[in-house]
Structure formats: structure tokens, C-alpha cells
Structure prediction request, 258 residues.
Amino acid sequence: MARLDGYRIVVTGAAAGIGRAVVRRYVAEGARVVAVVRKEGDMEGLASDGALPVLGDVRDYATAERAVALAVEQWGGLDCYVANAGIWDFHKRLEKQSASELGDAFDEIFAVNVKGLMFGARAAVAHLRATGGSVIATGSNASFLAGGGGALYTASKFALRGMVMQLAREFAPDVRVNAVAPGATDTAISGPTALGQADRAMNGDADRMDAMAGDMPLGRVSVPEDHASLFVLLASREESAYVTGATMLSDGGLTISV
Prediction:
């Protein structure tokens, strides 16, 4: 039997990268998935992957509410909410940003990386209590270390890890809350509009990717599929029944090498 047979799951940031890999893996493991995306053009591909796409912005509580309601309406409940959507800041140094850029970029990065988790958890918690389900967030090696981004990104990922720990206390014993913390990954994650980075992609710079690979003890940058098994593990009641409040590293050894 598939590891997540019959599970009903919401995944945000599902259009590409880690989110898309998780959606595909969940479907392969027997789950029924609502996939949240920002662009209408991404919906058709997710539907062909076997997911039920929803258009919305994780900065808006109504998006989380709508995604959860769709899963409950279609399948009668919810077993897991994956707050995966995120943006990076391309290591933008604090002193290279104007005061107005700092304020706007802070609001944008924290709204996606932290508020997205908060809204998703709030919209989902009652349904997850009913099923003994879980929340999973996507963190980063920057949830533990400086150097994985600039000050704003790093602060947002530390905040996300803190929220995971606090929500694990608040939602216990009925709902588990955990995170997966990838390291350097070959994805097209973009940055905030406030810093003019909305059209940039992490993997759009070959020199950057080579430099990242050189820092990795395992000798390469990861691909999104490298992280998907941890999302399966944390979603499964049987396989991670006693795990909550954890942020599980999937960083190729980067954190231990510093």
C-alpha cells in the first residue's frame, strides 16, 4: 500500500521546485492534493500531475481558507497542510538597501515566508485536530545559520523555525507541526518585488550554483526531489507519530560543515 494512501493534503508554492516535487511525490504515494499556485498558467500542469489546483496568494488568509475548504468539500477532511511557498533575497546586504526598500522588502519576505505558515496553520487547525493530522513548513539551512541569504531572508527563516516550535506546543497533542530545512537547491525561487528581484531565479546564475556546490560536503547542489521523502515521512502518522516541533535538515551536510 502507498505510504499516504487516502491522505488529503494542501501544498502551497506548488508550481515548481520543491513544492512541485512534493505534490508529485504525494500523489504517487496515494494522497489527494490541493496545490496552491500564484499564476493561472501553472494550474493546467498541476492538474495533469493529479492535483487539484487553486489560484491564490499565501499572503492573503482567504487563500489558505479556500484551499482548506476545497479539500474538505471534495474529500471530507484534511490530513496535512504544507506551507511551502517562499521567496529568497539573493544575499542582499542590509547596507545596500535604502530605508524604504528595507521596510517594503521586510513586509514582503515575512508575509510570504512567515505569514503564509501562520495563515495556513490557522485555517487548517480545526480540521487537522479532527483527523490527528499535521502541519509541515519549508524552512532552510538559513533557519539555523547565517549566510544562507541576506538579513531579511535569514531572519524570516529563523522566525519560521520558532513558529514551528510554538505551534507544536499550542496544537499538541492532536496536531503535529514540523519543518523540512533544505540547503542549496536547484530551483527557480525568486525574490521580493521591493528589491527588484521578482523576475530573478536562484538557478538562473550558473556561477552561483557552482559556488554553492563547492560549499556542500556532499559535493553537489540538491534537486527538489532530494527533499520530498522527508515531506512524506512527516506527513505520515505511522512513520513520524512521535515527531513534533522538529526542523529536519536536508542540506547535504552544510550546517555541520560550518
Remarks:
- The chain has one domain: 8-257.
